[in-house]
């Protein structure tokens, strides 16, 4: 037999053996398993936690001379972008996986960007085959509908990462009335000049449109005021997440020396007690009287009513196809294409996770301004190095009314903010046309408050 023939036969045998091996190690999970168990097996066989974890189980070649640098880079970038530990634990415990995790997994599987080519060339079993992809995408859809559907979207949009906002959520109207009064009451500040509404005006998009808000004595804080509208949907409050509830958030500013500067709630209560009519109304709702807990509970109940449903985009998701135009729809498709909808998810298009400011580029180095304590983000609370420069993702509802943008209030326009996000989160320089389309989409997110389109008095005055 000729040598060439032997070589061809040997090559065919080798290729056949490799193909058989590839097929064997890439078996999809059993269809008899529950969907969560299938997904758990997929991310395990895919080696996801070898990069997306704080305690990675590094591959066998991690210390090889050439491979070590590549491995370390992949692990660092993977962990910066997405820590899958919580997702893996939720799957194992049979608990709901977060909205952001669902969106991130869905997007990389849809795009075929994970696992990286260099990884599955060595770990064949990590490859996402068509069968695995089908299972994973079905799991995302099933999980999203089971845990996060609110019944408002039309059937064809039921699996979108974004949900319409409800017209209302259950509240105690007696507390709401008290909370409304307290929210606008300057007696919550030491010198009776500042109320919650001073920095979060309901007629100015739930913000004050300043880079930093002004407190008692003309002092300025060091972080941009987030909108109070739709804050009830946030998984935590404040940029650094130091408050777990709206009531905890409401307790912060009155005692902040730069904001309202009271020494204690006893100081506030002493002033309220002098108001006989208000005290009578308060006791009718809270028989045990004034306390920090009762005051902040009333404000929390009021803030639950600050929802802004029925934006044009909500109407589109509900099935009114003519509610947005072709340019705005193209902007939404780009919003999803460029991974914006992996963090800006749910009813408020955000507020569901902490994310790193500057995944692909160093925002703070390029900003050219000295770092402040506020720039540390979540790290302020946890002192965990990974949390440095991570912030609660802001919701994008009514964003056309809430300039300036970012935690440092450095972006004056939506277009500028979108441009920076693309550069620093995705390492993309978007063309003018695409920036304009995404901004057009964002402008469809302005909703209604008390049945009327939400407006901003500051913008009206500027005109």
Automatic annotation (TrEMBL):
<dbReference type="InterPro" id="IPR051395">
    <property type="entry name" value="Cytochrome_c_Peroxidase/MauG"/>
</dbReference>
<feature type="domain" description="Cytochrome c">
    <location>
        <begin position="326"/>
        <end position="446"/>
    </location>
</feature>
<dbReference type="InterPro" id="IPR036909">
    <property type="entry name" value="Cyt_c-like_dom_sf"/>
</dbReference>
<keyword id="KW-0560">Oxidoreductase</keyword>
<dbReference type="GO" id="GO:0046872">
    <property type="term" value="F:metal ion binding"/>
</dbReference>
<keyword id="KW-0813">Transport</keyword>
<keyword id="KW-0249">Electron transport</keyword>
<dbReference type="GO" id="GO:0009055">
    <property type="term" value="F:electron transfer activity"/>
</dbReference>
<dbReference type="Pfam" id="PF03150">
    <property type="entry name" value="CCP_MauG"/>
</dbReference>
<dbReference type="GO" id="GO:0020037">
    <property type="term" value="F:heme binding"/>
</dbReference>
<keyword id="KW-0575">Peroxidase</keyword>
<protein>
    <recommendedName>
        <fullName>Cytochrome c domain-containing protein</fullName>
    </recommendedName>
</protein>
<keyword id="KW-0479">Metal-binding</keyword>
<keyword id="KW-0408">Iron</keyword>
<dbReference type="InterPro" id="IPR009056">
    <property type="entry name" value="Cyt_c-like_dom"/>
</dbReference>
<dbReference type="Pfam" id="PF14376">
    <property type="entry name" value="Haem_bd"/>
</dbReference>
<dbReference type="InterPro" id="IPR025992">
    <property type="entry name" value="Haem-bd"/>
</dbReference>
<dbReference type="InterPro" id="IPR036280">
    <property type="entry name" value="Multihaem_cyt_sf"/>
</dbReference>
<dbReference type="GO" id="GO:0004130">
    <property type="term" value="F:cytochrome-c peroxidase activity"/>
</dbReference>
<dbReference type="InterPro" id="IPR004852">
    <property type="entry name" value="Di-haem_cyt_c_peroxidsae"/>
</dbReference>
<feature type="domain" description="Cytochrome c">
    <location>
        <begin position="35"/>
        <end position="144"/>
    </location>
</feature>
<dbReference type="GO" id="GO:0030313">
    <property type="term" value="C:cell envelope"/>
</dbReference>
<keyword id="KW-0349">Heme</keyword>
């Amino acid at each position: 037999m000729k040598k060439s023939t032997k070589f061809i036969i040997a090559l065919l045998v080798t290729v056949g053996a490799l193909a058989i091996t590839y097929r064997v190690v890439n078996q999809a999970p059993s269809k008899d398993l529950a969907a969560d168990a299938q997904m758990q097996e997929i991310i395990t066989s895919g080696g996801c936690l070898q990069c997306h974890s704080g305690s990675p189980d590094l591959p066998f070649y991690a210390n090889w001379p050439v491979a070590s640098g590549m491995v370390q880079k992949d692990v660092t970038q993977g962990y910066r972008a997405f820590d899958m530990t919580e997702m893996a634990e939720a799957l194992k415990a049979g608990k709901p996986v977060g909205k952001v995790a669902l969106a991130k997994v869905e997007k990389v599987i849809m795009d075929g960007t994970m696992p990286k080519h260099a990884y599955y060339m060595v770990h064949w079993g990590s490859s996402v085959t068509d069968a695995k992809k089908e299972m994973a995408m079905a799991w995302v859809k099933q999980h999203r509908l089971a845990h996060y559907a609110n019944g408002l979207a039309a059937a064809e949009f039921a699996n979108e990462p974004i949900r319409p906002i409800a017209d209302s959520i259950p509240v105690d109207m007696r507390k709401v009335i008290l909370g409304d009064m307290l929210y606008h009451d300057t007696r919550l500040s030491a010198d009776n000049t500042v109320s919650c509404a001073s920095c979060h005006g309901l007629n100015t998009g739930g913000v004050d449109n300043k880079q930093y808000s002004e407190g008692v004595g003309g002092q300025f804080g060091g972080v941009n005021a987030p909108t109070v509208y739709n804050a009830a949907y946030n998984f935590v409050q404040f940029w650094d997440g130091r408050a777990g509830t709206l009531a905890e958030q409401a307790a912060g500013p009155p005692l902040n020396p730069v904001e309202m500067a009271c020494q204690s709630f006893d100081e506030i209560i002493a002033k309220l007690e002098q108001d006989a009519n208000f005290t009578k109304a308060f006791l009718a709702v809270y028989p045990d009287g004034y306390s920090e807990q009762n005051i902040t509970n009333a404000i929390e109940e009021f803030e639950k009513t600050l929802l802004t449903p029925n934006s044009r985009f909500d109407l589109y998701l509900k099935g009114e196809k003519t509610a947005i135009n072709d340019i705005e729809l193209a902007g939404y498709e780009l919003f999803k294409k460029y991974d914006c909808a992996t963090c800006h998810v749910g009813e408020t298009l955000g507020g569901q996770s902490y994310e790193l400011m500057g995944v692909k580029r160093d925002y703070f180095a390029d900003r050219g301004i000295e770092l402040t304590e506020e720039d540390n983000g979540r790290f302020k609370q946890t002192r965990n190095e990974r949390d440095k420069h991570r912030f609660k993702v802001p919701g994008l509802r009514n964003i056309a009314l809430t300039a300036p943008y970012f935690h440092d209030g450095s972006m004056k326009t939506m277009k500028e903010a979108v441009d920076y996000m693309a550069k620093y989160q995705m390492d993309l320089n978007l063309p003018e046309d695409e920036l304009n389309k995404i901004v057009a989409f964002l402008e469809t997110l302005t909703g209604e408050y008390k049945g009327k389109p939400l407006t901003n008095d500051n913008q009206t005055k500027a005109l």
